[in-house]
Amino acid sequence: MSDVFTEGLCSTLLADVGARVMRAAVKPLRAGWLLRGRALTVSVPAGDNLAIHAALAMAQPGDVLVVDAQGYADRAVMGGIMCAQAAAAGIAGVVVDGAMRDAAELREGALPVFAAALSPAGPYKAGGGSVGRSIQCGGVTVNPGDWILGDDDGLVVFGPAESDGLIAAALAKGKAEALRMAAIARGELRPAWLDDALARATLDIGPAR
């Protein structure tokens, strides 16, 4: 699988140029993780994980398991055993819009795990749901094979057809931000765009002190 991600890409740059942004509740269990790969999509009924087991059995190295667990917070759909299996299969990371468990164990591991909640309660295995279909996860549409990037700031999603344009725009924005940081280091504390923006805006600014 070719990797579209290059050094310097992060969730904030991709979000700023149009990548889909998952809701803030879906966040990493540990700071410092970087998750990136292509989505293996799963949808499960609230509190059930049979479809996730089916997905793990067919996952390919580099996949990111992206699970619409209906945002259900009171029963975990994955934990330490399933994440150990995912890591052994070469899965690049796990994203669950719902609950996980075994948080301390997962934080000690190398597999990046993003989730909306934690619960000690275990899952049902009654079935239902889907694997490899378009889903809603974290408030956005995720299609099979979409690119996923997650870091300390959150998760972004974009399709293969968008990747070239989004990545080029994100890298260009990164260069512009680096130039601004260099200007700040030189003591240039007033950004060039500020005066025009203030002239167009309606702001109530008190007298200077």
Automatic annotation (TrEMBL):
Cofactor: Mg(2+); a divalent metal cation
Positions that bind substrate: G79, G80, I81, M82, R101
Keyword Cytoplasm among UniProt keywords: no
MF-aspect GO terms: lyase activity; metal ion binding
Keywords carried by this UniProt record: Lyase, Magnesium, Metal-binding
Positions contributing to Mg(2+) binding: D102
Listed name of the protein: Putative 4-hydroxy-4-methyl-2-oxoglutarate aldolase
Organism: Achromobacter insolitus
